[in-house]
Design goal:
about 180 residues; seven-stranded parallel β-sheet; 7 helices; globular; about 45% helix; alpha/beta
């Protein structure tokens, strides 16, 4: 399975890097391919390192203004012209999506895939890895959207919340097998 991971490129605390590394190792050991933003810095580097060390493949999609931070020596690297093209390519190259901790770029990517699912434009499984409760507030906001009629589909059809890396990958593998 080609798993797109949306996540931060920032250098982060161990409470975030350790679970990300654990997920990456599981992904690599499972024979899966990481599709990610291509950066060789911060949490993006942690995940790429973990996948590579565990024998997985790396497919990066960077963007022209960040190309200097792109990871060398990957299985496949594409440099997009802009962020919109990057998101499109990331999703085209993936069978499933995992949303890890991140900032506004990660949130933008997350809402794009959920909007596509909401309108039936994709059926790719999406997992939000809620490391250290990072997305508790977002989950509450999504529940409010659902409760007050802003989502035409049940939240559970759009995204699966997982607290731990193993649960995130298990959900993806189960969903993918059923496709």
């Amino acid at each position: 399975m080609r798993i797109c991971v949306f996540l931060s490129a920032a250098d982060l605390d161990d409470r975030y890097t350790r679970p990300a590394r654990d997920f990456a190792r599981l992904l690599g050991k499972g024979g899966h391919t990481l599709v990610w933003g291509g950066s060789d810095v911060g949490l993006m580097k942690v995940v790429a390192d973990g996948v590579e060390e565990a024998g997985g493949r790396l497919v990066g999609v960077s963007v022209d203004f960040l190309a200097a931070k792109a990871r060398p020596g990957v299985d496949d690297m594409v440099i997009a012209r802009n962020l919109a093209e990057r998101k499109k390519l990331l999703l085209e190259k993936a069978d499933a999506v995992v949303i890890m901790v991140g900032g506004t770029g990660t949130l933008d990517e997350a809402t794009e895939i959920l909007e596509l699912k909401k309108h039936g434009r994709t059926d790719k499984p999406v997992v939000l890895l809620n490391t250290a409760g990072f997305y508790d507030g977002l989950r509450e906001q999504f529940r409010r959207m659902e409760d007050e009629g802003f989502l035409p589909r049940p939240l559970a059809e759009l995204v699966h919340f997982a607290a731990e890396p193993a649960g995130a990958l298990a959900y993806l593998e189960e969903s993918f097998d059923g496709r």
